[in-house]
Design goal:
heterodimer; A: 290 residues; mainly alpha; MetI-like fold; globular; B: 332 residues; D-Maltodextrin-Binding Protein, domain 2; seven-stranded mixed beta sheet; four-stranded mixed beta sheet; 16% strand
């Protein structure tokens, strides 16, 4: 008896030691991957950008075409993210609060942009709105420019960022169920009051998290936007496209300077994300206690 | 609330500071290696245009692989003028889009090609593989960098230059096809445009030789310093004639015909020709060409019209779906 317990104990000890080793190895390799594949390239971007000093760095960022690209990027984000927010909330609401036919198809379709290559997304709009496309001739007659202009860039951005808000909200809203809303209705709240005072506060942090992810992706989108942009410098080039142009013009320092501007914007968004994530976790913990 | 307010503020600020629309704008849709040329030329043209008592014009530029750019104009990119790599691409504007008349090429001197160029080899300093002529490119172990002829105009000139060499040397089309097929076996990457290939060769250090526009090769030497590369002129190459055209459907809609025509005509002026030469294009104007004769290597040049019966024959034969290039590439 005693000998068996002893061997069991040593075995447990050994496996714990093994676990410890395994854990260390895993942590080290995670760090290694992080440093080699993420941190190092980012540092290279920064060091290349600052190679010729702060003066060249700032002159690349404040150059007219770069500023126009920044403006266009912010404008595209400023239009597409609010639209995605409204659509995302509406879609998540439908899916999580109602039962209807074709619901699973709708949920699958919302995920479509994750699986479709962004280039295809862009080409779809060219086929639809291009001069040779489906409604192109009508658009031309009425002098409406969709692709190779701001509307096309916004459409392409919306297409690739549609799932972010919805995907974030559906599990959250499903978890919360409909009880609180039902209670609000019983107490006499109208639909809008219920949404504003019950639903929205409940999903607030999840919503912010989704919006932040959506913004990050919208700012960095290259493929889809590249197809519909027309690459008119100073007019239809977004920041990522501008980086490519500068790089192709042997203008490495400027390319990396503008790239690091994108990087700074991304880092800022990452901080926002971290903050909203922590708020969500706190919310979940509170819900668990009750 | 705060989210909404933030979004509104962001939107409002973006709208207020959005791109300012100038009185008259001209969009020049061009191919890859002309970026530097037109950035200089646009300034010169604006000075000239204003000196004639006109208001300043905002000239917008778009660059990319020549075939891809033509496609964008057909799809609705509102170019006032196109300055592409070869007339075959501008022909498509007539064929697919009816944006220009069929005889567009007769509207300006020299078949609407204000400057020419040719195809040369760019090799690494000291020419370590000893690449002197087209024969050397088909040897095993030589890596050749050239873009995709489907999307790049320069790549089509490259292809035809190699073809012309083989045809003259071996005397038959079948042998020329075998030779060019051998050459493309040595191509590790096909970029979509000439500039992409240059970056692959110069910055990413891939390949032993870049088949390049002469102007692109000189520019690479200038930008990256002459210490790392040198230009090799093969015994025979092709006269590359990049054409220009006003896009009638667009200028008539926008009311920019006058400035668009003046813009292209200015390419033929002495100053336009000098700017072309400065950016390593061969000027059409003989007097100015002789001023710059020293900077260009002398080599035997075939032409698209005499040796290939023009782009109208060469494009479908070699580069359309199922053409010679497809046969070569699918065979691999």
């Amino acid at each position: 008896m005693s000998s068996t317990t002893l061997t069991l104990a040593t075995r447990a000890n050994a496996s714990r030691r093994g676990n410890k080793l395994g854990r260390r190895l895993l942590i080290i390799s995670a760090w290694l991957v992080f440093v080699l594949f993420l941190l190092l390239p980012l540092l290279i971007v920064l060091s290349e950008a600052l190679k010729q000093g702060l003066g060249t760095f700032f002159s690349a960022i404040f150059e007219a075409d770069a500023l126009a690209a920044l403006q266009l990027t912010l404008l595209a984000v400023g239009i597409s993210v609010p639209l995605n927010l409204v659509f995302g909330v509406a879609a998540a609401w439908c899916v999580s609060k109602y039962e209807f036919r074709g619901k699973s198809i709708l949920v699958t379709l919302i995920d479509l942009p994750f699986s479709v290559s962004p280039v295809i997304a862009g080409l779809v709009y060219v086929l639809l709105f291009g001069a040779q496309g489906f409604i192109g001739p009508w658009l031309r007659e009425h002098d409406i420019q969709i692709i190779f202009a701001l509307p096309g860039i916004v459409l392409a951005t919306i297409f690739v960022t549609v799932p972010f808000v919805t995907r974030e909200l559906i599990p959250l809203m499903q978890q919360q169920g409909t009880q609180e809303e039902e209670a609000a209705r019983l107490l006499g709240a109208n639909g809008w009051q219920m949404f504003w005072h019950v639903t929205l506060p409940n999903i607030k942090w999840g919503l912010i998290y989704g919006v932040v992810l959506c913004t990050a992706r919208a700012m960095g989108e290259f493929g889809a936007v590249s197809v519909v942009s027309g690459h008119i410098r100073g007019y239809t080039n977004t920041l990522p496209l501008h980086v490519e142009i500068l790089y192709n013009e042997y203008n490495h320092v400027a390319a990396f300077s503008v790239a690091s501007l994108l990087l700074l914007l991304a880092l800022f968004i990452l901080l926002l994300k971290q903050w909203s994530e922590s708020r969500i976790n706190r919310l979940k913990a509170n819900a668990g206690e009750e | 609330m705060s989210i909404r307010r933030f979004a509104l503020a962001a939107l409002a600020s973006a709208l207020i500071t959005g791109p300012v629309v100038a009185a008259e704008t001209l969009l020049n849709v061009s191919y890859d290696p002309t970026r530097e040329l037109y950035s200089d030329f646009n300034k010169a043209f604006n000075t000239h245009w204003q000196a004639q008592g006109n208001a300043a014009v905002t000239i917008q530029q778009s660059h990319g692989g020549s075939g891809k750019q033509a496609r964008a104009v057909i799809d609705g990119l509102r170019a006032d003028v196109v300055t592409l790599a070869l007339s075959g691409d501008i022909d498509e504007l007539y064929k697919l889009g009816k944006l220009i008349p069929e005889d567009w090429q007769t509207r300006l001197p020299d078949a609407s090609t204000p400057y020419t160029s040719t195809i040369v080899f760019l090799v690494r300093k000291g020419n370590p593989k000893g690449l002197k002529d087209w024969d050397d490119l088909v040897k095993p172990g030589v890596e050749v960098i050239t873009p995709n002829p489907k999307t790049s105009g320069g790549a089509r000139w490259n292809f035809l230059a190699a073809w012309a060499y083989a045809q003259q040397k071996f005397g038959s089309e079948a042998k020329a096809q075998a030779f060019v097929g051998q050459l493309y076996k040595n191509v590790p990457v096909l970029d979509t445009g000439a500039r992409g290939s240059t970056i692959t060769f110069v910055n990413n250090q891939i390949g032993d030789v870049l088949l390049a526009w002469e102007n692109e090769a000189f520019l690479a030497l200038k930008e990256e310093g002459g210490d790392n590369f040198e230009i090799v002129a093969p015994s025979l190459s092709i006269l590359a004639e990049p054409p220009v055209a006003v896009v009638d459907a667009n200028v008539d809609k926008k009311g920019t015909r006058k400035v668009a025509e003046a813009y292209l005509n200015y390419l033929y002026s002495d100053e336009g020709q000098r700017l072309a030469a400065k950016h390593f294009y061969r000027p059409r104007n003989q007097a100015i060409a002789s001023e710059y004769a020293k900077q260009f290597p002398q080599l035997k040049l075939v032409t698209i019209d005499k040796d290939f019966n023009g782009w109208k024959t060469a494009q479908p034969k070699f580069f359309n779906d199922g053409g010679v290039f497809d046969q070569i590439y699918q065979a691999q």
